[in-house]
Every structure is written in structure tokens, then in C-alpha cells.
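Revision sheet: C-alpha cells.
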Amino acid sequence: MGTNGSTMLEPLRQGLPPLDPAAVSDAASCSLPARYEAVREARRFTRKTCDQWDVGDRFDDACLVVSELVTNALRHGMPAAAPRLTGQEPPVRLHLMRWTGRLVCAVRDPSHDSPVAGAAGDFSAESGRGLLLVESLSDSWGWQPTRGALGGKVVWALFRLRDPVV
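Predicted:
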């Protein structure tokens, strides 16, 4: 795994159980354009990757959570006027990582603002319910600022995988 993957794991170490980056059995990532079609692309990428990794019954949950994380990154993590120079790193990136028994879905965006889950009882709110969905479908979630030139933050969700039935 290259430097990019290793750098991505750095923020995850803070809020997750101790996980050795060397123990990552699989990792995949994709850049996403700063438009809402990116949510469909992220779902397709997650579906294809999870199918290859055989994540079992967490498949649907992971796809839904990725949709929410990418939607939030596009809606709240992009500067209002975000012109991008050609050849520049795309502003939103999806990372999927699998350890034995764990799957992590992480989305990087350029904003330094912390993600905020809406109040559980406030069904009239226009937004904020996505992170409540992430919280209910995943085993844990969190976020960390990214270090280095890219800046921004990474929002992640962890899924515990069942051992395959032999």
C-alpha cells in the first residue's frame, strides 16, 4: 500500500480500536467529482469493492452509509465557490479499507468544519439526519482533521464483519 493509503489511515487511528495499517488486507479508493452524480458513482464503487471483498450482510449498510457520507461531503464540505484547477487533487475522495473482521468507509473533503448530527426528534430539519443514519447503521463513526497539504477532514464509519461460515 502506498504512502497515500498510509496517510489516510492516520486519522482513523485516533478514534478506532488499535489497528495496524500493515494488517490492512484490502484497500481501495476513488476520487469523486464535486457534483451530486458522485453519490451514485460512490455507491457503484462501494458495491463493486464490497462484492470483491465478500463483506456479507454489511453490504447494504455500507452502501447506504457511503451515500450519506459522500452527500454530506458535497453538501457541507465544499467551499461555496470551489473552482478547481486542472491537475489538482479532487476535493472529495472515498476510501474503503478491510481488516480481518472490520470494514472502514472513509470520505475526505476539504472542509475543516466538524460534522454535526441533527437532533433525533427533529424530523422537520432540512438536514442532519444523514449522520443519525450513519450512526444507526455502522458500529461506530467519527471524524478527524487531515494533516499535510490536502487539509480538510476525513469522516469514517466502521462495520464489524461476521466471520464467514465455513
